Amino acid sequence: MKDLWSVLARQRDYRLMLSAGLISLIGDWLLRTGLAFQVYVLTGSTLASGGLLLASFVPPVVLGSLAGVFVDRWDRRKTMIVTNVLNALVLLPLLAVRDESAIWIVYGVVLAQSCLQQFFSPAEQSLVPVLVESEQLVTANALNGQIRDIARLVGAALGGVLAALGGLTLLALADAGTFLIAVVLVAGMRHRRTPHEHDEASAAEEAGGAIRRLRAEWTEGLRLCVAGQAMRLLFVFCLVTGVGEGIMSTLFAPFVSSELGGDGTAYGLIVSSQAIGGIVGGLVAAAIGSRLPAATMWGVGAFFFGLVDLTLFCYPLISDSLIPAFACMIVVGLPGAFTVAGMMTVFQNLTQDGTRGRIFGAITATESVAVLVGITSAGFLGDAVGIIPVLVFQGLGYVVGGLVILSRRQVLAPRPEPAPPLPV
Prior knowledge:
The chain is mainly α. It folds into two domains: 1-188, MFS general substrate transporter like domains (Growth Hormone, Chain: A, Up-down Bundle); 223-413, Up-down Bundle (Growth Hormone, Chain: A), CATH 1.20.1250. 80% of the residues lie in helices and 0% in strands. It is built from 15 helices and no strands. The protein has helices spanning 2-10, 12-43, 46-73, 76-90, 103-131, 137-187, 207-224, 229-259, 264-288, 294-314, 323-331, 333-350, 356-385, 387-407, 409-412. The longest helix has 51 residues, at 137-187. It is globular and about 50 Å long.
């Protein structure tokens, strides 16, 4: 716990960014939960509810890799401020939604917010290594993961309550309020950007030259995703587990219903229970982060994450009780927190500040494609070979991925800075 409090006490800017992230993420979850409820109430259509998922998935695929290029050019603190302000503004059209005929406004808002997120996420993740010391990086990433689980628990609960009390109007105003609070907190950060080489380009650069430079930086981000053994390992891990997450998101509800005999309430409680383990796991990861190599934390976390998932998916072969499902979802939050903290730290150690945003954006875009592949294939394979065999792929992906990471952890270790030359 000493490491955790050291980061929070000594790093003022990181503390402000973490607080802003927690508040805005609570807003994200209350809106996400409330919108799903309200869209179904307005339309009575599961297809209309599915449109929300599609609207949020398109921008990462189309815009993710390109947005990272701009994030590397811009001041990341200002990028976070501007995107938070715009997020608050684009929520205002929801105040005009009164019935099913205006449902297109909801889709437009979700699409716009997802587009803005493609700029915000790489800016936030690229800023973390700048705000904390290198030995505090695992702890900082563990705290980032923990606030996501806290926001998920608090925001999802508030979303249902606010949707019932005031509908879309109250949801929109509440979420906009969280973004504006986040703006104030991020604006209070003292960090200012250090210009990189590509900032020195002539202001009088021709449009054609600007486009060529943009294209070159975009392709550079794609190339750097697979440059070297370490980045290739991270890239392939994200692709394989992305397909698995797509499978999980598609088949887990049918799994609870068909294999466990649970209803909608049981499904919601089982899914949300993972956040409990995530909060505990985040605390543990933050407490020991500076004493455990990031690659080891990533590999161990991924291996046990997959092992618990395999237990969850296979135990219905001998029992249809819901209790083991709750237990597995709580327990899996612990290795899940280790996986995220370790992997993000490895990524940050492998990348340079001037190109980190575009690499993050490119990986996010390809991972989103992998998730879509998983979603699409799961629908067909679930009917063809059964729900459990397809879900097993998700667990195996993490188990095998974790073992590979552990076997190659020396490749993933951060390279020491070269020693300065001795004075002559």
